[in-house]
Amino acid sequence: MKNRAFHSGIKRSPYEAIFGCAARVGLSTTAIPKEALNSLVDEDQLQNTLTAMNVSPQPDNEKVVE
Fold this sequence. Notes:
Blueprint: H1 14-19, H2 34-39, H3 43-54
């Protein structure tokens, strides 16, 4: 993302120097439901949400036979 790289001269990113806070990465274009996005507080919760979305139980009619 533009303007997120740390600048050693100003000891922060250009975005932080201009806006006074760290740049945010948008998640609104992901497949995560809006309710889940609104309840996220930290990266661990995001990771748990993504993990839960990728793990779905296998239907009984699609059992794998080994």
